[in-house]
Amino acid sequence: MKTALITGANKGIGFAIAKSLGKQGWHVIIGARNKDRAEAAVAQLKEADVEIVDYVLIDLSAPETIEQAVKAVQSDFSDIDLLINNAGIPGEHGSSLTESVEDLQATMQVNFFGTFQLTQGLLPILEENHGRIVNITIPTDPNPYWNPFAYKSTKATQNVMMQALAIDFEKENKNLETFSIHPGPTTTDLNGNITAEGFHTPDDVAEKITAILLDGSTHQGEFLEIYGELK
Predict the structure, then answer these.
(1) Rounded to whole angstroms, how far apart are CA atoms 179 and 85?
(2) Rounded Cα–Cα distance for residues 21 and 123 (Å)
(3) 132 pairs with which residues across the strands?
(4) Helix H or strand E encompassing 55
(5) Could you say which of 17, 91, 195, 204 has the lowest number of CB atoms within 10 Å?
(6) Is 178 helix (H, G, I), strand (E, B) or coil?
């Protein structure tokens, strides 16, 4: 049985991916900051016919909880072969002219430092299981119509993390693969549940992400846009 840990999976895209993979027979592990929300998500997934689902408490803003989560996975879920780095925060969504250092640091901690710490901590288990690391991220090319400085800056560093890991995995012949998926505009709490034209539901996005995860292909170092072209 395949086992996936999905961060930020008590709602939104992460929850939808957990549901989609769970219905394909995967053992899904919800990564969530809050015990009550994690338990509620587990109950909802079981009601949706996901048979094997657990949770691990992870707060990417708190390094000590990341260490505890790594230990919990090592102890209880050592068969994990997929890590989906989905959790993230939007920051203030403001201009670079007014962005505060404090907000940028807080956003960077979750979207990059915390994500990197978790990923690095789980590398030994993932390598043993010939595992994959998949980042749910965004393109960070210049866009005058959508220019949230903190969010794009922190996702850019996450994208660099993926590229660097992919290169090092191949250089050192690691039994590991990493790639990124850009889901496109999706209606979630992250954007205030916008439902404008061109936006998709988390379930629609999760279905396409699951298709990529199960396509049997190697995507080492790639950026995949599920509503665009392969890059």
Answers:
(1) 11
(2) 21
(3) 82, 177
(4) strand 53-57
(5) 195
(6) strand
d(CA 48, CA 26) in angstroms, rounded, equals: 14
CB contact at 8 A, 118 and 72:
no
Question: What are the structure tokens assigned to 101, written together?
Answer: 């250092």
Annotate 58-92 with b (16+ C-beta within 10 A) or e (fewer): bbbeeeebbeebbebbeeebeebbbbbbbbbbbbb
Q: By the 8 A CB rule, do 167 and 123 touch?
A: no
Name which residue leads in pLDDT, 145 or 63: 63
Q: Is-contact 52 1, C-beta < 8 A? A: yes
Q: Is 171 exposed, middle or buried (0-12, 13-18, 19+ CB in 10 A)?
A: exposed
Q: What pLDDT, in 10s, does the model give residues 85-142?
A: 999 999 998 899 999 999 999 999 999 999 999 999 999 999 999 999 999 999 999 9
Task: Classify 66 in phi/psi space as left (phi over 0), alpha (psi -120 to 50) or beta.
Answer: alpha
pTM of the model as a whole: 0.93
Taking only the tens place, the pLDDT of each residue in 196-221 is 667 778 899 999 999 999 999 999 99
Apex CA 38: angle with CA 35 and CA 43, to 5°? Answer: 125
Nearest to 20 by CA among 165, 130, 181: 181
